[in-house]
Amino acid sequence: MTSKRIPVLTIGLLTTLFTLHWLVTDKTALYFSAAGIFDGEAWRIISGHFMHADLQHLLWNCLGLAVLGTLLEFRSRTVLLASFGTGIVVVSALLLTPYAKLDYYCGLSGVLNTLLLVALWLEWKSTRSRLIILITCACIAKVVIEVSQGVSIMTHITWPPYAWSHVAGLIGALPVIWALTEFKPKARLIR
User: Fold this and answer.
1) Which residues are CB-contacts of 160 (< 8 A; sequence separation ≥ 6)?
2) 20 to 30 A Cα–Cα from 62, which one of 49, 81, 110, 150?
3) How distant, in Å, are the alpha carbons of 109, 114, 162 from that of 79?
4) Which CATH number belongs to the domain containing residue 160 in this structure?
5) What are phi and psi of 105, to 5 degrees?
6) Are 114 and 139 in contact (CB under 8 A)?
């Protein structure tokens, strides 16, 4: 197996998530906190997405990252990094608004929704499968239900769900998809 087939970025991100979870004793110092960020604790913009409320929260997010990160990385490491970074920016932008009304936020699920929509779009571009359209609609319906009901469908963790971060994650995929369409990456990168 060549190094191109080993998802080193995804493995690195997963290792970071596990390391932070097990080594950081006071996780609240790294949770996303708009008040903390406005007080100069800028690291929380990124670290909050890498922290998790409990082991179940971590494991669900790691499962999503392992699958989606690997799918995107096999297509292009640049696309994975662009999706991950854009997801962090868009979800963080929502969390910094007064609309969010959160003291703290943690987890990667908002960003994972960016990766999900980009991965689905890339798969649809290469296959034109109606199944991909159906899966995309089901994913969007899941987020709509979570927002309207204020619950998490897939997991039940000690942290209260904030489904609007999933909406922000889906929105975060749009500039990545636009860039992939507009700038037509090399065929070898996006199959």
Assistant:
1) none
2) 150
3) 18, 11, 26
4) 1.20.1540.10
5) -145, 140
6) no
Q: How many whole angstroms separate alpha carbon 174 and alpha carbon 78?
A: 16
CA–CA gap between residue 113 and residue 68 (Å, rounded): 9
78 Cβ contact list (under 8 Å, min separation 6): 185, 189
Residue 89 covered by a domain: yes
187 is a domain residue:
no
DSSP states of 34-66 as a string? HHHHHTT-TTHHHHHHH--SSHHHHHHHHHHHH
In whole angstroms, give the CA distance from residue 169 to residue 182: 21
Q: What is the pLDDT of residues 20-55, one digit of tens each?
A: 999 999 999 999 999 999 999 999 999 999 999 999
Stated pTM of the model = 0.92
Contacts of 184 by beta carbon, 8 Å cutoff, 6+ apart? none
Whole-angstrom Cα distance, residue 132 to residue 119? 10
What residues make up the domain containing 109?
3-182
pLDDT tens, residue by residue, 71-105: 999 999 999 999 999 999 999 999 999 999 999 99
